[in-house]
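Today's session is about reading a structure prediction critically. Students often jump straight to the picture, but the first step is always the sequence itself: look for stretches that repeat, for charged clusters, for runs of hydrophobic residues. Only then move on to the predicted structure, which in these notes is written as discrete structure tokens rather than atom positions. Here is the chain we will use throughout the hour.
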Amino acid sequence: MLSPGELFGGVETMVLGLCSRLRDGGVYVLPVLFHDRELARRLREAGLEPVILRTRHRYDPGAARALVGLVEKHGIDVVHVHGYRATVTAAVGGSRLRARVVKTEHGLPEPSVRIIGKAKSRLNHTLDTWATKRLRACVCYVTADIMGRYDKAHAGLLRRVIHNGIDPIEREGRPRPPELEQGFFHAGIVGRISRVKGITFALRAMASSAVPSNVRLNIIGTGPLEAELRHEASTLRLGDRVRFHGFQRNALDWIAHMDVLLMPSLHEGLPYTLLEAMSLGVPVVASRVGGLAEVLRDGETGVLVEAGDTSGLASALGHSVQEPQLARSLGAAAAREQRGHYSLDRMVGEYVEMYAHPRS
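Below is the predicted structure for this chain, in token form.
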């Protein structure tokens, strides 16, 4: 299981769940990471010791040599790659990498507003596409939307949609973070603070008269846009109504005690934060994009608004405050949906089928 392990988000949650369940099912699993950080710590806590590839730069050929050595030493049959760096590393191994390759596409490249950032993104995407073809990888997509966007780039490869999945999460018994004071309506955003997450629209919605003054917006996570968004919240004079709490290891406790989870993204794959909120029965207000629109049914298991529609977001948030019984019913329906269609066992079973499939 080859993954960067640099951050801890949806990709890392998926890798952790997949490794643990495969191991429990009698499959030998070797997690290989480029960074010894949060994912590595959680793998160790689960009884899985990761191998950390020490490299000089992102495309260090020494990483490919090390990967080939690990495959030979441990008799690995399948290398499952996550992200462009893992895919390129495997491809550099070339014919020496005597294992089938399965790749998961978790989303689209994150856009950058800087010229250098755009150039790097294009280079990484080009190398990723080349590497995927060179490996003749079996490609899995977390949503049908993402699969459609790669029709041309991955033509000729074995391809399949495998939605993310989790074990059911119970809300009862989870401690309430003291920062979520009683007497307020708590909305939350959980994830990397970047432009694609659309957090600026949530801030503008909070400044709308449609949102009652007792609503608090709690932002869980870190990222490159944090300073800019803090400044915007100050400019909008939101004061104590918006709070940045940073990265929280116990994010599930925060989600469990939210009154509503906001996901105003410009695009998404299939975020684990969504599945976790659904499982916990927390109502979700999300943009009508990507996997959010693919999983949620507007008015049945959540509320969907158009991406960038500040007034629509404010109205949906206001209705959640004014109609708590309806919000709770949406959350309960979402919990049933998660248990019925987005389970970890279903996801793992579908990946095992891909592992057993011959090269395309």
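Discussion point for the tutorial: The chain has a mean pLDDT of 95.
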